[in-house]
Amino acid sequence: MFLPIGDYPNPRSTPWVNYLLLGVNVAVWFLVSLPLSHMRPDISDPLLLEFLYDLGVRGAVPAQAIYDQISAYDLFVYQYGFRPAEPSLLTLFTSLFLHGGWLHLFGNMLFLWIFGNNVEHRLGSVPYLLCYLGAGVGATLFFSLFVAGSTTPLIGASGAISGVLGFYFLWFPRNMVRVLIFLFPFIVTTVLVPARLVLGFYLLIDNVLPFLLTRGGAESGVAYGAHIGGFLAGLGVAWGLEKVPGLNLWRGERSYRRGAVEAGDGDRHAAAPAFIHQQLAAGRIQQAADRFLRLEGRAERRAVASGDVLAIGAYLLDQGRTDLAIPLYRRFIAERPDDPDLDRAFLGAGLALERHPRHITSSYQYFLQALDMTRSDAVEEVARRHLRAMEARGRRRDADES
């Protein structure tokens, strides 16, 4: 058996929404699912006849024999699980908090516990909740495309949690997952495995392959399509937050650019690269930064020398304007993937993100990337120093919690 039991590094914030989701799922199991599982359905419930009909009960079948095999929870799931043939807005959400057994619940909650905190830390609490629910709805609808006529209820949080895994896969590629290897009595140990390897195995081996072999999961009783749909939804939203201007940490740059344009229209037609370089050479870094941040297009930004862009980034860091420095470094990385100074951009992004408690794990990734690609002793020394400091803080926090 191979079972993920933890990940590293972890944020310093408290993932309140992740705890809330864990608590709600567990509470529903103990307060609703478990008690109803030990009760017989109300024989006068009009839904019972519809349920039995969809179950395939036909002809001369002893009523008592059928009745003895079902529970009140079966009927509850039939009512509040999502049935693709009879979709409803209510069951799109209620189905996300119902589970088919304690192992089903345990597996889902384990993955949410391990991977949810980093994603909530990066997104923020309210956006995390919305993305979780949105991924769950998207996963359910994606699965329904393959079983459109089915009256079998779909339940479980795994589609929404797969969305969380999609976020994690894109945003935390350098994190490590602690995996329990339990091959008793020969091997019982834990190993650290790269997060993308663990999540790639989950997506491809645990879901895509069975999905293809069982006609979308219709023959297996496992909604592989929902897992795949949720993962893709999380991956897509994470990519959009990284790449689409106006999202994530780019709001400050937009407002800054508006103010700079209003304050400095006189030189808007000046040749940007030459003007910026001249201002930097003359020590007028603020003017150079104003001009660069007003550039609208990729081609205009790429025309400015890399050294000048990085000098502006360093100035913004010194001024505490991380809301401007972060998108500057991210755009440098995205627009100049072969630049010889790319390691300095990764380092700058790490330094800027490190100042935001919600983005400390992203900062860790940027420092690692800078360390991997640099040939500069100075960049290596700074990256290693910050990585050691972050790891030391993590160890102290773990010691305090224990």
TrEMBL record:
It is found in: Membrane. It is a multi-pass membrane protein. InterPro entries: Peptidase_S54_rhomboid_dom, Rhomboid-like_sf, TPR-like_helical_dom_sf. Its EC number is 3.4.21.105. Keywords: Cell inner membrane, Cell membrane, Hydrolase, Membrane, Protease, Transmembrane, Transmembrane helix. It is an enzyme of class 3 (hydrolase). The keyword Transferase does not apply. GO terms for molecular function: peptidase activity. Pfam families: Rhomboid. One of its GO terms (biological process) is proteolysis. Its main location: membrane. Residues 89-241 form the Peptidase S54 rhomboid domain. The keyword Cell inner membrane applies. SUPFAM superfamilies: Rhomboid-like. The lineage of its organism: Bacteria, Pseudomonadati, Thermodesulfobacteriota, Desulfuromonadia, Desulfuromonadales. This is Rhomboid family intramembrane serine protease. The chain crosses the membrane at residues 16-36, 87-114, 126-148, 154-172, 179-202, 222-241.
